[in-house]
Design goal:
Blueprint lengths: L1 E2 L6 E2 L14 H12 L17 H27 L2 H13 L3 H6 L7 E2 L2 H10 L2 H16 L7 E2 L5 E10 L4 E8 L2 E7 L5 E4 L2 E4 L4 E8 L2 E10 L4 E10 L6 E4 L5 E8 L5 E4 L2 E6 H4 L1 E6 L5 E7 L5 E3 L3 E2 L4 E4 L10 H10 L2 H15 L12 H29 L2 H26 L5 H27 L2
Parallel strand pairs: 3-10, 7-13, 14-21
Antiparallel strand pairs: 1-2, 4-5, 5-6, 7-10, 8-9, 8-11, 11-12, 14-17, 15-16, 15-18, 18-19, 18-20
């Protein structure tokens, strides 16, 4: 039975035209015949054998196979390259071989971060690298499981490393990064325009008070500072340890080595001289000299005119004193510079002991080498010797005053001296109590007592000795 392709009517076999619509239907019969005679596109109609594949087809198949192979190889290579475990193994190997620069290269380092590769690596070792390494592996596994990764902390609870994951190659792969977490370091600056150098990083204070010094990795750093002051150029240096404290912000103390000196005089318009050079300012105009170096001692005195219009120099004060009072004789007896020099040459016991005290002060320079290496044992030796020298001359002065003063005056001095001793010992004890180490307590105690004793020596000579 043949069906008409035009109207669908069922016709008798061998019918050439549709009995319903009259249209030819032989095209359907031809199509069926061709379909029955054809076995497949690769066989000939005569013998049914497979046709040979064209060269183009062969190259196409080979090309596809090569591309698939390259994709597989590239996938394996990239996956291996991005394997975070390989990166952790590289960290471990670098640290064991003490290749500290290579250790740091395995991390993502934030911009403007200040660090010392060796010092930071040693800090990591100190805080237990094996535990930190195991934590890194654990957090990597968390990311691969679709979970969040927690920061890795040091033994003080300060964040040290964060583990991050990001897409690469349009999201086809995931890359794990180990980013170092810095510590923000601050200090309290006593003045504006102090130049601070930490390793090779320079900071200039822009105000008095809290000052940001930068972003640092934990470690040990060398620091120094310079300041061009009105009265003296100040500088100091030392070593700074930055370590975790449970927070990624740290406030450090820098030894500014600064002190102040309050000035007063019985002639307030006397001109102040520093190391023999005029400041062109009067005692009242200055009032207080700040900042001065606590260790670099300068000599300060004042100059006024006597009734003859001649320059007269006051007593000299060194900048390590806490208070400077410049005294001038009564104008009728006020000596000139020449008379002062003659008095020093021929003078009284008071002048002799002033010279002795100045000599002791200058002679302390022979102890400076004990401070060079910042060894507390050596520093303690220097402070103890300094105190002993001032204490010996104090006893000598006190013995001489017993001969010069009346019994009544000596009794009054004795009472004052007892109060002074109590004040000295109390101040030394309070200052020393700020330190936990016994050696630092001793250093501080002798330093304060030496300063008190020195000032007392000058007071006794100037106010009591004849």
């Amino acid at each position: 039975m043949d069906f008409c392709v035009h109207c669908g009517y069922q016709n008798a076999e061998e019918t050439n035209f549709c009995e319903n619509c009259g249209k030819p239907i032989n095209s359907v019969r031809e199509t069926k015949s061709e379909s029955n005679n054809s076995v497949g596109p690769q066989y000939s109609k005569q013998n049914g054998k497979k046709k040979p594949m064209s060269r183009k087809s062969k190259f196409t198949i080979i090309g596809i196979a090569v591309i698939i192979g390259l994709v597989v190889i590239a996938n394996i290579a990239i996956t291996k390259m991005l394997d975070p475990m390989k990166q952790i193994e590289a960290m471990d190997s670098a640290l064991k071989q003490e290749d500290y620069q290579a250790f740091l290269e395995e991390f993502q380092i934030p911009k403007d971060l200040i660090y010392d590769a060796e010092s930071f690596s040693l800090y990591v070792k100190e805080n237990g690298w094996s535990a930190i390494r195991d934590n890194l592996i654990e957090e990597v596994n968390s990311l691969e499981n679709g979970e969040f990764a927690d920061p890795i902390s040091d033994s003080h609870g300060t964040d040290l490393i964060t583990v991050l994951q990001k897409d690469v190659l349009f999201g086809l792969f995931k890359k794990v990064e180990f980013k170092l977490v810095p510590i923000e370091v601050y200090t309290e600056a006593p003045l504006k325009d102090i130049e601070i150098m930490i390793n090779n990083h320079k900071v200039k204070t822009d105000n008095e008070g809290t000052q940001l010094l930068g972003q640092y990795l934990p470690g040990v750093y060398a620091w120094s500072y310079t300041y061009d002051g009105q009265w003296a150029n100040l500088e100091n240096s030392g070593e700074l340890t930055i370590r975790g404290n449970g927070s990624n912000k740290l406030k450090i103390d820098i030894d500014w080595d600064m002190t102040s000196l309050e000035l007063d005089s019985d002639i307030e318009d006397a001109i102040v001289y520093v190391n023999g050079k005029s400041t062109k300012l009067t005692v009242s105009e200055i009032g207080e000299m700040y900042p001065l170096s606590a260790n670099d001692i300068i000599k300060i005195y004042a100059v006024a005119k006597n009734s003859k219009g001649q320059d007269v120099q006051s007593n000299s004060i060194t900048s390590d004193a806490r208070y400077a009072y410049f005294e001038f004789p009564e104008d009728t007896n006020q000596p000139t510079f020449e008379e002062e020099q003659e008095k020093v040459t021929n003078g009284s016991q008071k002048d002799e002991y002033i010279q002795k005290l100045d000599s002791i002060d200058a002679g302390l320079a022979d102890l400076e080498h004990l401070y060079t290496n910042k060894d507390n044992t050596e520093i303690l030796k220097a402070e103890k010797e300094t105190y002993n020298r001032w204490d010996n001359i104090l006893n000598e002065i006190y013995a001489l005053l017993k001969q010069q003063l009346s019994s009544g005056d000596m009794q009054s001095l004795k009472e004052v001296q007892i109060e002074w001793i109590k004040d000295k010992e109390s101040s030394a004890k309070n200052a020393a109590s700020k330190y936990a180490e016994d050696e630092m307590k001793e250093i501080t105690k002798y330093k304060i007592e030496a300063q008190y004793t020195k000032e007392r020596c000058y007071e006794l000579v100037k106010n009591y000795m004849k």
